Amino acid sequence: MGRLDLIRHRLGIAGSQQPQPTGNRNLDRHPIARVRHETRRRQLTLATIERLTPRMLRLGFTCPDLGDFVSASPDDHIKLFFPDPEAAEGTKPPMRDFTPRKFDVAAGTIEIDFALHEAGPATSWAASARVGDPLEIGGPRGSVVVPDDFDWYLLIGDETALPAIGRRVEQLRAGARVATFVTVDHDDEAQSFDTLADWVPNWIIREGATDDAVLLRAVLEQHELPAADGFVWIAAEASVAREMRSYMLDVRNHPREWIKAAGYWKRGEADAHEKIED
Ligand SMILES: Cc1cc2nc3c(=O)[nH]c(=O)nc-3n(C[C@H](O)[C@H](O)[C@H](O)COP(=O)(O)OP(=O)(O)OC[C@H]3O[C@@H](n4cnc5c(N)ncnc54)[C@H](O)[C@@H]3O)c2cc1C
What we know:
This protein is α/β, with parallel strands linked by helices. It has two domains: 3-32 and 146-276, 3-Layer(aba) Sandwich (Rossmann fold), CATH 3.40.50; 34-142, Translation factors (Elongation Factor Tu (Ef-tu), domain 3), CATH 2.40.30. The protein is 18% helix and 33% strand. The two termini are 38 Å apart. Flavin-adenine dinucleotide binds next to strand 5, strand 7, helix 2 and strand 14. Flavin-adenine dinucleotide is lined by residues 77, 96-99, 113-115, 117, 119-123, 159-160, 163, 264-271, 273.
């Protein structure tokens, strides 16, 4: 059995499916709002370390001034400023974008999930962090708020997208149809989310394969899109996210207004964030 057959087999799908146009194109029905927030820096203190899966660390922080923290959308991001004791005076600390996975402004707590990879200031800091360590954050600067009234949601990504995907799946209204397609290295990287939504998870295991776009597309080709209004969200390595957006637009004829895609990192480049548009 080839790799793609193996994936199909695991997902319990077979046969091929023709691309289908989706939605009835009344695009005004689900207004997507852009909201700006006042940005400020906050000092966090690491309070808890939880290994969610072998390659995903959840770090929980306390913050005395979280009272006016606003994160209106599951895919908001904050800047993390990593302390670098060896940096020359006056140089800026390395900063990277992360998703506020969970937060409680009344309790003054915030959690951030780190997908560990080979090397980089963020991954190294998270892997060696100890309770009591300080961390500075900034933002979110704004939110793109997608309404909760789409008939269905399709969320596509890799490990770096999982915090935002988890937040959205957990927040969706009871019974909302949401399918997630996430590439991970091994079976044991799959996560579960508490949700009232009608969530269908699809974990696509790389097992050594290096092209997430090929894997995702093979599985998505078998996925029937309901003939009603749907929102598609994509976040992954930049070239993968671009290919997935093109696939949804050009092959599945999904309305571009109802697709949001971003490169959450870029192979061979540090600190990359790409909004993927036309
Ligand atoms: C809006 C937004 C939200 C994000 N939210 C999260 C989040 O909640 N959790 C999370 O873990 N990540 C998240 N990311 C991704 C994260 O910002 C990047 O992976 C970031 O590059 C990690 O920084 P680093 O210092 O570890 O590596 P960098 O110094 O930035 O990169 C070093 C090298 O590692 C490579 N690299 C970077 N990330 C990965 C990766 N995931 N896998 C393999 N190679 C990689 C780069 O190509 C580069 O060659 C988010 C990104 C964006 C844009």
